[in-house]
Design a protein that fits this description.
227 residues, alpha/beta, 5-stranded parallel β-sheet, 4-stranded antiparallel β-sheet, 12 strands, 21% strand
Length: 227
Amino acid sequence: MKILIVEDNRDTAEFLKYAFSAGWPGVQIMFAYDGTKGLELIKQDPPDIVLLDLGLPDISGFEVIKKARKFSHVPIVILTVMDNEPDIVKAMELGADEYITKPVGQMEIVARIKALVKRLHFTNLSSDELVLGPWRFNPLKGQLYNNSYQVSLTSMENTILQILIRDTGKVVTYHALAEAIWGVDYPSSINALRVHISRLRQKMERDTCYPQIIVAKVGFGYYIEKI
């Protein structure tokens, strides 16, 4: 496993290096202290995962994601102090796979990266297409189809949708979703879930203000209606 840390704060970079050396021995760590170098390493020495700060000295982390997605599908994890929802949504829409806000504990960040790796390599997927109202869902391909219209799901959206479908008609709690996705229910997991659910709804619902497929039970969790 090779992890590229794109972070201009060298103290933070060393903190992350120590976290992985303690919690995940054998992981190879590479550093880039600006976005340009990060893009260069992604292209020339592809890592397995990128940890990316949004506030870089040359170009923004958003620009790094945008440019990287033109030539690479490497999982990108945002690690930043910017915790407002518009930034989270923007990063995800550009192609980030995960969003972690600082400060974060060493054990938490290692656990969440391990969970991401596990999820990305998850092979126990249904080979059957599933029907959700007007939609057909292919878990193996991570694709949604509505007649001739097709949309792609991120690995996170694919996982969330499979979990909700598995318990169709039952409410899946925030805690259960977080445990299934990240392996740990961390303090800001509910906000992260809301962002991913919002993006799924944008892809699936006719009216995101009045969702008919993925429904929230306020203060408790989400469920998929029996259709």
